[in-house]
Design goal:
The protein is built from 8 helices and no strands. By secondary structure, it is mainly α. The protein is globular, with a radius of gyration of 20 Å.
Length: 188
């Protein structure tokens, strides 16, 4: 286990325990959605997870916490692990500062309810059931990309949320390389 000594980092990690707990509970709720939750509970679950995401964002943007993050980022002599903590928190801070809380809540609700709709559409092999939800998710992701900002492609902003620094230009060659073998597999 890593032992941190920097007092600012220790304060950050102490505060972050509450943020971690909220993320953990949200993760369990998402897991439940994918495994055991009855479909009729999707709307209420989406509502709860939407509210939870807003609470997490507000806690993250607490000025004392933000000040601690900036204080740590300005300090010299941090270990590589401490620098990693600061880097990750600065990325999260950037997201929470750019994306409005009402958007975060609405997106969480939409994705939660849409998961159940997707499941039903898949069982019935009826894409039309899911099409309105997918269209809304697509539109909200375009809006999220606008909030986050990008240089070349809106998709760059979204890719970066899952893999720091990943862009369409970097991932494009990979898909070009696997396209032909995949097409051969589909033809069989």
């Amino acid at each position: 286990m890593i032992k941190f000594k920097n007092r600012t980092i220790l304060k950050i990690l102490d505060y972050y325990k509450n943020l971690w707990a909220l993320s953990y509970v949200a993760g369990v709720a998402h897991w439940d959605l994918e495994t055991y939750m009855p479909s009729a509970g999707a709307s209420a679950r989406g509502e709860a997870l939407g509210k939870l995401s807003v609470i997490r964002q507000k806690m993250f943007l607490d000025q004392k916490f933000v000040d601690l993050i900036h204080q740590a980022s300005a300090q010299g002599g941090l270990t590589s692990q401490e620098k990693g903590v600061v880097r990750v928190l600065l990325r999260s801070l950037d997201f929470y500062e750019k994306v409005p809380s009402d958007f975060v809540e609405k997106y969480e609700k939409l994705v939660n309810v849409s998961t159940v709709i997707w499941r039903e559409a898949k069982e019935k092999s009826d894409y039309k059931l899911f099409e309105p939800s997918l269209s809304k998710i697509f539109d909200m992701n375009k809006q999220m990309a606008e909030y986050l900002g990008y240089v070349d492609s809106p998709y760059d902003a979204l890719l970066d949320q899952f893999e720091e620094g990943l862009t369409v230009d970097k991932v494009g060659p990979f898909f070009t390389e696997i396209k032909e073998p995949l097409m051969i597999c589909l033809e069989k």
